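Subject: sequence -> C-alpha coordinates, single chain

Hey, anyone have a minute? Need the predicted structure for the following. Not urgent.
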Amino acid sequence: MQKFGRKKVFLYASLIGCLGAGFAMFSLVSGLFYLFCFATFLLGFFTVLNQFYRFLANEALNLATQNDKNRATAFVVAGGIMGGILGPNLANIGTLIFDTPFVGSFLFALLLCAINFAITLPLTLTSPNTKKQSQKVPLLTCLKEPNFILATLACVLDLHL
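Reply:
Had a minute. Here:
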Protein backbone atom coordinates (compact mmCIF):
# COMPACT_ATOMS: atom_id res chain seq x y z
CA MET A 1 0.00 0.00 0.00
CA GLN A 2 2.93 2.31 0.61
CA LYS A 3 4.22 1.65 -2.88
CA PHE A 4 0.99 1.74 -4.91
CA GLY A 5 -1.46 3.60 -2.66
CA ARG A 6 -4.50 2.35 -0.79
CA LYS A 7 -7.07 3.03 -3.46
CA LYS A 8 -5.20 1.12 -6.17
CA VAL A 9 -4.66 -1.84 -3.86
CA PHE A 10 -8.34 -1.99 -2.89
CA LEU A 11 -9.47 -1.64 -6.51
CA TYR A 12 -7.08 -4.33 -7.73
CA ALA A 13 -8.16 -6.57 -4.85
CA SER A 14 -11.77 -6.22 -6.01
CA LEU A 15 -10.78 -7.09 -9.57
CA ILE A 16 -8.83 -10.11 -8.32
CA GLY A 17 -11.91 -11.16 -6.35
CA CYS A 18 -14.09 -10.87 -9.46
CA LEU A 19 -11.57 -12.89 -11.43
CA GLY A 20 -11.42 -15.53 -8.71
CA ALA A 21 -15.19 -15.83 -8.51
CA GLY A 22 -15.42 -16.08 -12.29
CA PHE A 23 -12.76 -18.80 -12.36
CA ALA A 24 -14.58 -20.65 -9.57
CA MET A 25 -17.85 -20.61 -11.51
CA PHE A 26 -16.14 -21.82 -14.69
CA SER A 27 -14.18 -24.52 -12.86
CA LEU A 28 -17.30 -25.88 -11.16
CA VAL A 29 -19.17 -26.11 -14.45
CA SER A 30 -16.15 -27.62 -16.23
CA GLY A 31 -15.04 -29.88 -13.39
CA LEU A 32 -11.51 -28.44 -13.31
CA PHE A 33 -10.32 -28.97 -9.75
CA TYR A 34 -6.95 -27.24 -10.13
CA LEU A 35 -8.59 -24.14 -11.54
CA PHE A 36 -11.03 -24.19 -8.63
CA CYS A 37 -8.11 -24.29 -6.19
CA PHE A 38 -6.51 -21.32 -7.96
CA ALA A 39 -9.85 -19.48 -7.93
CA THR A 40 -10.26 -19.91 -4.19
CA PHE A 41 -6.67 -18.70 -3.74
CA LEU A 42 -7.58 -15.52 -5.61
CA LEU A 43 -10.73 -15.09 -3.50
CA GLY A 44 -8.65 -15.59 -0.37
CA PHE A 45 -6.25 -12.91 -1.58
CA PHE A 46 -9.22 -10.56 -2.06
CA THR A 47 -10.52 -11.37 1.42
CA VAL A 48 -7.18 -10.73 3.08
CA LEU A 49 -6.69 -7.39 1.36
CA ASN A 50 -10.17 -6.27 2.38
CA GLN A 51 -9.26 -6.78 6.02
CA PHE A 52 -7.21 -3.60 5.67
CA TYR A 53 -10.40 -1.51 5.41
CA ARG A 54 -10.75 -1.71 9.18
CA PHE A 55 -7.30 -0.15 9.62
CA LEU A 56 -8.30 2.60 7.22
CA ALA A 57 -11.46 3.21 9.26
CA ASN A 58 -9.43 3.28 12.47
CA GLU A 59 -7.04 5.81 10.98
CA ALA A 60 -9.95 7.98 9.84
CA LEU A 61 -11.43 7.82 13.33
CA ASN A 62 -8.28 9.32 14.82
CA LEU A 63 -8.91 12.52 12.86
CA ALA A 64 -12.68 12.74 13.49
CA THR A 65 -14.87 14.43 16.07
CA GLN A 66 -16.48 12.30 18.79
CA ASN A 67 -19.86 12.36 17.02
CA ASP A 68 -18.25 11.17 13.78
CA LYS A 69 -16.36 8.47 15.68
CA ASN A 70 -19.62 7.17 17.16
CA ARG A 71 -21.33 7.11 13.76
CA ALA A 72 -18.37 5.46 12.04
CA THR A 73 -18.12 2.82 14.76
CA ALA A 74 -21.83 2.10 14.41
CA PHE A 75 -21.45 1.71 10.63
CA VAL A 76 -18.49 -0.66 11.02
CA VAL A 77 -20.34 -2.79 13.57
CA ALA A 78 -23.54 -2.78 11.49
CA GLY A 79 -21.60 -3.75 8.38
CA GLY A 80 -19.99 -6.65 10.21
CA ILE A 81 -23.35 -7.87 11.49
CA MET A 82 -24.96 -7.46 8.09
CA GLY A 83 -22.11 -9.33 6.41
CA GLY A 84 -22.33 -12.12 8.97
CA ILE A 85 -26.01 -12.60 8.19
CA LEU A 86 -26.05 -11.80 4.48
CA GLY A 87 -22.95 -13.79 3.45
CA PRO A 88 -24.04 -17.27 4.57
CA ASN A 89 -27.59 -16.69 3.36
CA LEU A 90 -26.42 -15.64 -0.11
CA ALA A 91 -24.14 -18.68 -0.23
CA ASN A 92 -27.05 -20.98 0.69
CA ILE A 93 -29.39 -19.38 -1.83
CA GLY A 94 -26.68 -19.55 -4.49
CA THR A 95 -26.33 -23.31 -4.17
CA LEU A 96 -29.77 -23.80 -5.70
CA ILE A 97 -29.81 -21.23 -8.51
CA PHE A 98 -28.00 -23.27 -11.18
CA ASP A 99 -27.90 -26.97 -12.02
CA THR A 100 -24.26 -27.15 -10.88
CA PRO A 101 -24.13 -26.70 -7.10
CA PHE A 102 -22.42 -23.58 -5.72
CA VAL A 103 -22.09 -21.76 -9.04
CA GLY A 104 -24.70 -19.29 -7.83
CA SER A 105 -22.79 -18.82 -4.58
CA PHE A 106 -19.74 -17.73 -6.53
CA LEU A 107 -21.93 -15.54 -8.73
CA PHE A 108 -22.98 -13.70 -5.57
CA ALA A 109 -19.30 -13.45 -4.58
CA LEU A 110 -18.55 -11.93 -8.00
CA LEU A 111 -21.37 -9.42 -7.56
CA LEU A 112 -20.15 -8.47 -4.09
CA CYS A 113 -16.62 -7.96 -5.40
CA ALA A 114 -18.01 -5.75 -8.19
CA ILE A 115 -20.05 -3.75 -5.66
CA ASN A 116 -16.91 -3.35 -3.56
CA PHE A 117 -15.09 -2.03 -6.62
CA ALA A 118 -17.92 0.42 -7.39
CA ILE A 119 -17.99 1.71 -3.82
CA THR A 120 -14.21 2.09 -3.62
CA LEU A 121 -13.84 3.84 -6.99
CA PRO A 122 -15.12 7.29 -5.93
CA LEU A 123 -13.28 7.27 -2.56
CA THR A 124 -10.45 9.68 -1.92
CA LEU A 125 -7.92 7.83 0.19
CA THR A 126 -4.80 9.33 1.68
CA SER A 127 -1.45 7.64 1.27
CA PRO A 128 -0.17 5.62 4.20
CA ASN A 129 2.18 7.46 6.50
CA THR A 130 5.61 6.61 5.14
CA LYS A 131 7.49 8.59 7.80
CA LYS A 132 7.04 5.84 10.38
CA GLN A 133 8.87 3.11 8.54
CA SER A 134 10.16 0.52 10.93
CA GLN A 135 13.56 -1.01 10.57
CA LYS A 136 13.70 -4.44 9.02
CA VAL A 137 14.37 -7.19 11.52
CA PRO A 138 16.29 -10.27 10.39
CA LEU A 139 14.26 -13.48 10.18
CA LEU A 140 16.53 -15.30 12.61
CA THR A 141 15.83 -12.64 15.24
CA CYS A 142 12.08 -13.13 14.77
CA LEU A 143 12.40 -16.89 15.06
CA LYS A 144 14.13 -16.52 18.44
CA GLU A 145 11.35 -14.35 19.89
CA PRO A 146 9.24 -16.22 22.48
CA ASN A 147 6.04 -14.48 21.33
CA PHE A 148 6.64 -15.56 17.74
CA ILE A 149 7.18 -19.16 18.79
CA LEU A 150 4.08 -19.09 21.00
CA ALA A 151 1.93 -17.59 18.23
CA THR A 152 3.22 -20.14 15.71
CA LEU A 153 2.44 -23.01 18.08
CA ALA A 154 -1.04 -21.60 18.69
CA CYS A 155 -1.69 -21.50 14.94
CA VAL A 156 -0.44 -25.07 14.50
CA LEU A 157 -2.59 -26.34 17.35
CA ASP A 158 -5.61 -24.43 16.04
CA LEU A 159 -5.21 -26.02 12.61
CA HIS A 160 -5.10 -29.51 14.06
CA LEU A 161 -8.04 -29.20 16.46
